[in-house]
Amino acid sequence: MQRRLEKDWELSIGPDTVRLFILKAKALSAAVNEDYADGAEHEIEFDGDTHDNHHHDGLAEESSENLTEEELRELINDLNVDEAAELVALAWVGRGDYDASEWVDAVTAARERANKRTAKYLLGMPLLADWLEEGLEAIGA
Q1: What is the pLDDT of residues 33-72, one digit of tens each?
Q2: Where would you tag: which of 17, 37, 54, 139 has the fewest CB atoms within 10 A of its CB?
């Protein structure tokens, strides 16, 4: 049985907000995986007269995928400094960079490296959703 960490701190970012980020990150990840599942990567085929034979509405598909990423990026950018630092720290704890008992150190380190590229940094993590989930679980939130 896993023992929960004794909380002597409060999260600035609500666990439900983090769970929303997790759902959006999973949706992004699923969209990427679907694109590469068939190996075609949306190739456009041309006949002998070099006419486009590609008939599905790729723009609508790309738009919905980009909207999800853009929406998640905006949500992260809307966080205040403390919330952003805690989100990064949760990802680090989930990834194993810090143990849950080192939470304060993780938040401090995340706050020290804080900049305007937090969204880009987090969205560049291949397993962001998993790491955030594991981070929340590790700290008992």
Answers
A1: 444 444 444 444 444 444 444 444 444 444 445 567 888 8
A2: 37
Interacting residues of 19 by C-beta distance below 8 A, sequence separation 6+: 136
Domain count, the chain: 1
Cα angle vertex 81, ends 79, 82, to 5°? 95
Q: How far apart are the first and last CA of the chain?
A: 17
Mean residue pLDDT of the chain comes to 77
In a domain, 28, yes or no: yes
Give residue 130's domain range. 15-32+62-139
Nearest to 20 by CA among 63, 78, 62: 78
Under DSSP, the state recorded for 100 is G
Yes or no: say if 86 and 110 are a contact pair by the CB < 8 Å rule.
Answer: yes
